[in-house]
Amino acid sequence: MLGQYVDLVMHPERYHGHHKKRPFFEGWYYKIVDATEDSRYAIIPGIFRGVDSSGDHSFVQVLDGISGKATYHTYPTDAFRASEDHFDVWVGPNHFNAEQLSLNIDDEQRNIQGEVHFSGITPWPVTITSPGIMGWFGWLTFMECYHGVVSLDHALSGSLTVDDNYADFDGGRGYIEKDWGQAFPSAYIWMQTNHFQQLGTCLTASVAMIPWRGLSFRGAIIGLWHENALYRFANYTNAKTEKLALTDHHVEWVVRDSKFRLEMRAVRTEGSLLHAPVRTDMSKRVNETMQSSVEVCLSSLTDGRLIFQGMGRNAGLEVHGDLETLLKT
Questions:
Q1: Which letter does DSSP use for residue 276 in this model?
Q2: Long-range contacts of 167-170 (CB under 8 A, 24+ apart)
Q3: d(C-alpha 146, C-alpha 217), whole Å
Q4: Which of 25, 218, 272, 316 could cysteine-pair with 277, CB 3.0–4.6 Å?
Q5: What is residue 214's predicted lDDT score, i.e. its pLDDT?
Q6: What is the pLDDT of residues 142-192, one digit of tens each?
Q7: pTM to 2 decimals?
Q8: Distances (CA, A) of 163 to 77, 91, 107, 118, 190
């Protein structure tokens, strides 16, 4: 059992629910944007098992980032199939892994058919001391929610037909992350973009209230991938938040560690409501947009050098929950 546990922690991209007690959820977030940036989709396959079996189901959630239409397609739990030794997941006739996604959805909400393939994926590095984006927290067994990044940036090929609208993804860019555990945090801010002027640069950043032995703390995990280097800012790297501010129009977040300072300013735009897990069901509604932009500035504290400055387009942004507590913590 210990060997299986270690193997699973060292592969955050895999399905973690084979031997988990309820309540439990797991979902993967695929973001695909075509070369013209006129077709943007978030596709979220997953499974949910609540405190009892009455609400158990698997699902594929689809967000059209242009129109804002969001649909939630449910399947029985036995329609969910996942490999135990590598990342390979089926939800009904829909297939997902780190190399491709294949959709075959035909119900009263939507008809979606096609395949999109990924090349040159960029996984978040995994080591014994830091098994993914959560760092050493990834080894703990009592966290409410775990997070992983399957690929920070990769190229796309293939196509989807969505309600008779054809979208060609050849030459597009993609991103894949995932979450699993018992429930989403009570409050959090999340932003992601890999559409900067310089190809291959990606920002993923989240800050959330984390339950901890009857109390809670504000946890941050940020990765800026630029010129084949990953700049990490997190509680486990001793990064500190200088500023976290929220208005009706912007999210401003500034962090620093002993070597670098990262400034982020995201534009808040109208989004759509997505399903998200609590311990009893998937009825929680989270507002997400794929039409935000994030201004990013990374500088060196040792010599004042500007390492990167740019504006990320097609950004995903979620701002949710008890934000007063999150901002004041």
A1: E
A2: 167/34, 167/39, 167/41, 168/34, 168/35, 169/32, 169/34, 169/35, 169/39, 169/116, 170/35
A3: 15
A4: 25
A5: 86
A6: 999 999 999 999 999 999 999 999 999 999 999 999 999 999 999 999 999
A7: 0.97
A8: 26, 20, 11, 23, 30
